[in-house]
Each structure stands twice: as structure tokens, then as C-alpha cells.
UniProtKB/TrEMBL annotation:
Pfam families: FAD_binding_1, Flavodoxin_1, NAD_binding_1
Subunit structure: Forms a multiprotein complex with MMACHC, MMADHC and MTR.
Provenance organism: Notiomystis cincta
Main location: cytoplasm
EC number(s) given by UniProt: 1.16.1.8
Subcellular location(s) of the protein: Cytoplasm
Record-linked InterPro entries: CysJ-like_FAD-binding, FAD-bd_FR_type, Flavdoxin-like, Flavodoxin/NO_synth, Flavoprot_Pyr_Nucl_cyt_Rdtase, Flavoprotein-like_sf, FNR_nucleotide-bd, NADPH_Cyt_P450_Rdtase_alpha
A biological-process GO annotation: cobalamin metabolic process
Catalytic activity from the UniProt record: 2 cob(II)alamin + A + 2 H2O + 2 H(+) = 2 aquacob(III)alamin + AH2
Taxonomy of the source species: Eukaryota, Metazoa, Chordata, Craniata, Vertebrata
The protein's name in its UniProt record: Methionine synthase reductase
Signal peptide residues on this chain, from the entry's feature table: none
Keyword terms, alphabetized: Amino-acid biosynthesis, Cytoplasm, FAD, Flavoprotein, FMN, Methionine biosynthesis, NADP, Oxidoreductase, Phosphoprotein, S-adenosyl-L-methionine
Length: 699
């Protein structure tokens, strides 16, 4: 359906995992209630829109991936607008508003959106609405919801201004009369409790009957004596409020069971990243003692005979399945236990109201039901509010229905954050908590995101171990909690640990420990592009590595590579190398005691280790954390970074380590250069900009 040019705006999204797309679709759904029509496209579909000739306002929703890169779907677009030959007035005609998504746990927060925003400004484009930057660390909705609220008045004014410029005042009057005033809308994005919200009612709902239910009209899930809210129980004021809930997303998928048999698609079809490699696991070693708090495993893959290439410091993806028992449990709840191996055909529902509806790219047109639930859908994903809204319609119990409405409403935003988002609740947890909720298979395909491959740092050198690729990981544990009654292992790490159980040798704590001679299974992998976390091109340049816990993983590859280069090129000059490593206990989780060998043979010039939980009888307590040892080596660290123009690498946990290391470096620079902290922060920013301070971190 063609958009009415009098009230049209162009809506573009660039998504990596589906968040930006879901938000863009919410904007598209709300637009109709405000007399507007959104012409929505993925930013990669450059044949369907043209910013060079676009006259209507443009709204862009864009996420950030990796260490601050635009999402894969925006690569071509960003490359196009980064063309240095474009004149500074190239987009002078363009009016736009941009909503960036990111996570402040990472250094380059919302850098995907910032990159596009900055470049559009450089090319002359004008904001018709202030840029919003939403933080997944605290909850995207804290910025997204008020940003969308304020969008409608800003769009109305932008369209009116556009028509006035074209001398079409009469058309402007028509548009204005079709748009009800929005006194709550804001020009500047102010995140406060006073922000008023639009009341979004369901299509076809009579008034606000459903939204304004009184407390005594419903049967609460939990006893009235409960005074604390929970996943299934609310308290005033939420429990007594009229609710502003999202519009019901239109259904657009239908699933048909088929009697015919066949073969499931190959796993390589699940990714658009190019070639995937199915490789055997040839070795598995448990690096931690049984009584260590975390279990760390090293796996070795046989990549000989493949074209898979890597450098030390690279990362790669592992394609992993959902947990078998969780898939079976979901089939049971859906009443489809007997149909798991049946083939289904997934197609767009005829007559759907969803604009531009298409079968999700990660869902094969034809496969078994179990294949879709095992390999295609992230069944552990935290449900978005649009999904909760759809689940309301599948719930028969009045109390459960009301609570789901609350959790997806504006009034229940804090409950959603606490009991769903922060508690990492998934679909199975919801279905157990709300047993009268019986969603259809098509609803799951519409709302569950793509099962993402998991990324791991390479912990080896192809020069040192030709035809082998190693990586290290902790087996992640998610404990049970009030909103999640069962504990779970990490999706990929738990699967890998189970897969290699036959290979695990009883002898621990040795990198040279040999696993069983026969391999135990194969996994599918593919390389992760655009990684700058590599050794200096000039071997004479010194570098410092900071990697506590499994953060040491890429540095094993660095040192293996450096050792081989030293053996092969005795006439080369090699810069000094520093490694700062930390763990809880020296005897339980000192992952790579092979480090001592690197130190003894000169590959590693300086080895500094600390153990945070070991007691000491020394008069002066030894340093507990890597940032503490860095401060003790302040003069040497400053010399390597400033005088010798060395490199600094950090790998590991972002929240509990990388930020502390960054603070320590700022302190060191401030002290050794005798400058204030602000100036030291500028120097660190320069090191980042010139790729001499590099991070490979996770949250």
C-alpha cells in the first residue's frame, strides 16, 4: 500500500539481533493512530528508498554491535555515506530524527547511531527531532518510550513546515486537523517521572474497558496478603491503575503441518556470514580444579583441511542449539510433543495487516518443528513487551491476563525491568508462571528472535599449532531465582561442556594434557569479521597484556605466535612483553601455568600475577587485582605507552575489570606526566583512537 505523501515519513532501521527492527515496527504500528503513515524499510534495502531525493522526514532506528560498529545490515549504507567525495551540502534537503541503541557497559556506547548521526550532519542534513540514545544496560524502554511519545508532535511540525515551504498551506490544515494535539509530547528528550505517555489502545477495543479494569473485577494470581510485587503478583499503584498498553501486533505467520518427509536445511543456511566450517573437537582440558568457583575448559578444534584462517587475537562464532530438554518441555506445553519430527511449512498469513510482512530470514520455509525450535529461535530470549502483549490474547485466566497486561504497560515499566529483564526470564519461565497462557507456534515464530551464534576469542596461533584452533571459556551458571525456579547453564557453554564430556581427561591444570585419542563430535564455526585486536605489525614495538581469568585466552595465542617468530627469525628485534594476570586462587584457577615457560624462554619479558582470594601472612598485603599491580608498575607502564609508543591490550569482563583497568591507566598517566585527570583521560582517548589501547571485553 502506497503511503499518502501528505502524511508520509520514511522509517529506516538497522538491526543486528532484532531490537531496532522491533522498535521500528512499534513506531510503524503507532503511526496510524496519529494520522501518519510510515514507509518502513531495512536500511540495507537501498533499492527501495533514496535519501538523495527524499523530501519527507526520515526516522532512523539503529543499533550498535561488536566494539562500536554499526550493525551488519548498515555496513553498505555507512560505507556509502562515508564517501569522502560527497559535498558538505549533499543531504542539505534532508530532515531526520535518529534513535540509537547501545549498551553503556561497552566503551563506544551507541557508536553505530553516533557514526550515522555525525556523518549525516557533516553532509548538511538537519534534525527535526533530537537524537535519542537508549541504553540496554539500564533498559532501552527508559529512553525509547518517551522518545517515541515526543516523535509525533515533532513529525507533525516537520511535515507542516515542509508543506508551508512548498506553498501547500491548505494541505497542511488538513493534516493538522487529522492529528489530535499531543500535549505530552516533548521536543527535548527528558527522562523523568513526569513524562506523560500516550494511551495506545488495541485495534477494535471498545473504549478502555480492558485497560481500566478495577481490582475487584479480577482474580489475582497471588493471595491478596502479599505485599511485595513479583513476576505473577502486583501491588498498588500498578494493581489499581488503568493501564496504557501497546497496540496488539498484527499476526502475519501461519504454520502448516505436512505429511511428507525430507531433510532439514544444513546449519550453514542459518547464517549470512559466508562459509561455515564443520570441524571436530580433538581435545578438551579442564583448566580449573573441581573446587574452583568457575569451571574453565580449553577446547581444541581440528581445522586442517579447511580454508578457515585466523590470526592470534581473532574471534570466531560457534553455531549452537537450544537445550534439548527445554525444547522438549516447550513442545509439551504447546501440546505438540508428538509432532516434533513432523515437517512444517512456514509462510506469510494471507490478508495480514502487517506492512511488508515476510517470513523471517532465520526460519526455513520447510523443516521439522524440532529443527526450528532447536536451531532457529532463541527460546531463552527475554520477551519484549510486544510479545507480552500478544501473550495476553492467549491467556484464559483473568488474573494472569491482567498481570501480563501490567508487565507490558507503561505503568508496569519498573516491574517489567525487575521481574523480566533483570531476572533474565524467558518464554518457558513465563509459561510456567502463567499456566493458562497457551500461545500458538506461529506466535513464537513471529516474536522470538533468531538464535544467535556465540562468539569466542581464539587462544592459539596457527604458526605454533598448524591446523589447530583453541579457545577457552567458563561454563556459565545461571542460578535459580524468584522469577526463574530452575538453574541453567549457559546455552552454548553448557552444550559444549556436555559435548566434550567424553574427552575430558582426569589430569587437570596442564595445557599439555592430552585428551582421548578419538574426537567426540563436530561443531559448526565461522570467522568474526572486523577484529582489530591483533599483535603490532612491527615486532620491535613493546606491548602490555591485561587478562584476568579467561581474559588471558587471546594472549596465549599472542605468546605462542611470538615464540615461533623468535625461533624462526633470530636476527629480528623484538620489543618487551608484559602480562598482567589474575584469578581467585593460585592452586584452583591459575589457568595457564605454561605462562612460566614463556617467561623462562624470554618470549614473555615480564609476568605479573595476583590471586584475589588467597590469604597472605606477609606484612604488606600483596595486590589482589590486576589494576593494583598496574599501579605498582606505573613508571614502566607509562614508559611503554608514552616513550616507546607501545600497545596496551585488555581482555575480560567489562563491568568488573576493564573499567577499573582504564581508571588505573588514567591515574598512571596523570601521575607520571604530572597532568590533571581530565588531561590524562584525553591522552587515553588518543591511545584508543590510534588503536594502541585495545579491548576485547564482554559484560
Amino acid at each position: 500500500m502506497c503511503c499518502d505523501s501528505k502524511r508520509r515519513f520514511l522509517l529506516l532501521y538497522a538491526t543486528q539481533k532484532g531490537q531496532a527492527k522491533a522498535i521500528a515496527e512499534e513506531i510503524w504500528q503507532q503511526a496510524g493512530a496519529h494520522g501518519l503513515e510510515a514507509d518502513i524499510h531495512c536500511i540495507s534495502e537501498m533499492d527501495k528508498y533514496n535519501l538523495e531525493t527524499e523530501k519527507d522526514p526520515v526516522v532512523i532506528v539503529i543499533s550498535t554491535t561488536g566494539t562500536g560498529d554499526p550493525p551488519d545490515t548498515a555496513r553498505k549504507f555507512v560505507k556509502k555515506i562515508q564517501d569522502k567525495t560527497l559535498p558538505p551540502d549533499h543531504f542539505a534537503h534532508l530532515q531526520y530524527g535518529l534513535l540509537g541503541l547501545g549498551d553503556s557497559e561497552y566503551m563506544f556506547f551507541c557508536n553505530g547511531g553516533r557514526t550515522v548521526d555525525r556523518r549525516l550532519q557533516e553532509l548538511g542534513a538537519q534534525h527535526f527531532y533530537d537524537t535519542g540514545l537508549a541504553d540496554d544496560c539500564v533498559g532501552l524502554e527508559l529512553v525509547v518510550d518517551p522518545w517515541i511519545d515526543g516523535l509525533w508532535l515533532a513529525l507533525k511540525e516537520a511535515l507542516q513546515l515542509q508543506k508551508e515551504k512548498e506553498g501547500m498551506n491548505s494541505a497542511v490544515d488538513a493534516v493538522s486537523s487529522s492529528l489530535s494535539p499531543a500535549p505530552h509530547a516533548v521536543h527535548e528528550l527528558k527522562l523523568s517521572s513526569e513524562v506523560q505517555n500516550l494511551k495506545l489502545e488495541d485495534e477494535g477495543a471498545r473504549g478502555s474497558d480492558v485497560l481500566s479494569q478495577k481490582l475487584d473485577d479480577i482474580n489475582l494470581v497471588a493471595p491478596a496478603r502479599d505485599t511485595e510485587p513479583s513476576l505473577v503478583h502486583s501491588v498498588p499503584p500498578v494493581s489499581q491503575s488503568a493501564l496504557n498498553i501497546p497496540a496488539l501486533p498484527p499476526e502475519y505467520i501461519e504454520v502448516q503441518f505436512q505429511d511428507t518427509q525430507g531433510e532439514n536445511p544444513h546449519l550453514s543456511s542459518l547464517t549470512s556470514e559466508g562459509t561455515t566450517f564443520e570441524v571436530p573437537v580433538t581435545k578438551a582440558v579442564q583448566l580449573t580444579r573441581e573446587d574452583a568457583i568457575k569451571t574453565a575448559l580449553l577446547l581444541e578444534l581440528d581445522i586442517a583441511g579447511t580454508t578457515f584462517e585466523y590470526q592470534p587475537g581473532d574471534a570466531f562464532y560457534v553455531i549452537c542449539p537450544n537445550n534439548v530438554s527445554e525444547v522438549e518441555e516447550l513442545l509439551h506445553i504447546l501440546g505438540l510433543s508428538e509432532k516434533g519430527d513432523d515437517f512444517v511449512c512456514v509462510r506469510v498469513k494471507q490478508g495480514t495487516k502487517k506492512k511488508g510482512a515476510s517470513r523471517p530470514q532465520h526460519i526455513p520455509e520447510r523443516s521439522t518443528l524440532k529443527f526450528i525450535l532447536t536451531w532457529c529461535l532463541e527460546i531463552r530470549a527475554v520477551p519484549k513487551k510486544a510479545f507480552l502483549r500478544a501473550l495476553v490474547e492467549c491467556t484464559s485466566d483473568a488474573g494472569e491476563k491482567r498481570r501480563l497486561q501490567e508487565l507490558c504497560s507503561r505503568q508496569g515499566a519498573s516491574d517489567y525491568t525487575c521481574f523480566i529483564r533483570d531476572s533474565n526470564v524467558c518464554l518457558l519461565d513465563l509459561l510456567h508462571a502463567f499456566p493458562s497462557c497457551k500461545p500458538s507456534l506461529s506466535l513464537l515464530i513471529e516474536h522470538l528472535p533468531k538464535l544467535q551464534a556465540r562468539s569466542y576469542s581464539v587462544s592459539s596461533s596457527n604458526l605454533y599449532q598448524p591446523g589447530r584452533l583453541c579457545f577457552v571459556f567458563n561454563v556459565v551458571e545461571f542460578p535459580a531465582g524468584p522469577s526463574r525456579p530452575v538453574s541453567r547453564k549457559g546455552l552454548c557453554t553448557g552444550w559444549l561442556a556436555e559435548l566434550v564430556a567424553p574427552l575430558l581427561h582426569p589430569s587437570k591444570n596442564s595445557l599439555d594434557t592430552k585428551g582421548e585419542s578419538s574426537s567426540t563430535g563436530k561443531i559448526s564455526i565461522f570467522p568474526r569479521p572486523n577484529n582489530a585486536f591483533h599483535l603490532p605489525a612491527d615486532p620491535s614495538v613493546p606491548f602490555i597484556m591485561v587478562g584476568p581469568g579467561t581474559g588471558i585466552s587471546p594472549f596465549i595465542g599472542f605468546l605462542q605466535h611470538r615464540q615461533k617468530l623468535r625461533e624462526q627469525h633470530t636476527d629480528w628485534e623484538f620489543g618487551e612483553t608484559w602480562l598482567f594476570f589474575g584469578c581467585r586462587h593460585q592452586d584452583r584457577d591459575y589457568l595457564f601455568k605454561q605462562l612460566r615457560c614463556f617467561h623462562e624462554n624470554g618470549t614473555l619479558t615480564h609476568l605479573k600475577v595476583c590471586f584475589s582470594r588467597d590469604s597472605s601472612a606477609a606484612e604488606v598485603a600483596p595486590p589482589k587485582y590486576v589494576q593494583d599491580i598496574l599501579r605498582l608498575c606505573a613508571k614502566e607502564v607509562a614508559r611503554v605507552l608514552l616513550k616507546e609508543r607501545g600497545y596496551f591490550y585488555v581482555c575480560g569482563d567489562k563491568k568488573h575489570m576493564a573499567d577499573d583497568v582504564s581508571d588505573a591507566i588514567v591515574d598512571i598517566l596523570s601521575m607520571e606526566m604530572e597532568v590533571d585527570r581530565l588531561e590524562a583521560m584525553k591522552i587515553l582517548a588518543m591511545l584508543r583512537e590510534t588503536k594502541r589501547y585495545l579491548q576485547d571485553v564482554w559484560s
